[in-house]
Amino acid sequence: MERHTTIFEHFNGIRPMARELGEHPSNVAAWKRVGRIPAEKQPHVLAVGLKLGLPITAEHVVFPLGRPHAADADLPPTPALVLCDRPADSQRCAAEPTI
């Protein structure tokens, strides 16, 4: 099984990545924890990585922990009907317009 290198590993860890990006290490640690780099930071992360000569692509920035497993993404639709519970009165009243 092939192991994919995360963007954090390409930068040699959270602290080195934070230092190169000019970010606080706790911010970069949060990105790793949630598995997402904020959209407004992504172009900067890619530019810094490329400037450092790291072998990263836009895919590394969009999927910092690796692309979701293909088996999870390619599930066929379920043939069974999905039934939801009836909403509570308070939820129905809030959703219905008052006339």
Task: Describe this protein with a few key phrases.
0% strand; 99 residues; 434 Repressor (Amino-terminal Domain); elongated; mainly alpha
CATH fold node name of the domain at 7-69: 434 Repressor (Amino-terminal Domain)
- Over all CA atoms, what is the radius of gyration? 21 Å
Spans with pLDDT under 50 lasting ≥5 residues?
A: none
The coarse silhouette is elongated
Averaged pLDDT, please? 82
H/E element order: HHHHHHH
Question: In this structure, how is the largest beta sheet organized?
Answer: none
CATH top level of the domain at 7-69 is: Mainly Alpha
Structural class: mainly alpha
Beta-strand content: under 5%
Write down the oligomeric state.
single chain
Report on this model:
The radius of gyration is 21 Å and the shape is elongated. Helix 2 (14-21) crosses helix 3. The chain has 99 residues and is mostly helical. Helix content is 48%, strand content 0%. It has seven helices and no strands. It has helices spanning 7-10, 14-21, 25-34, 42-51, 58-62, 70-73, 89-95. The protein has a domain at 7-69: Orthogonal Bundle (434 Repressor (Amino-terminal Domain)). The model has no long low-confidence stretch (mean pLDDT 82).
Question: Secondary-structure blueprint of this entry?
Answer:
Layout: H1 7-10, H2 14-21, H3 25-34, H4 42-51, H5 58-62, H6 70-73, H7 89-95
Helix pairs in contact: 2-3
TL;DR of this structure?
The chain is built from seven helices and no strands.
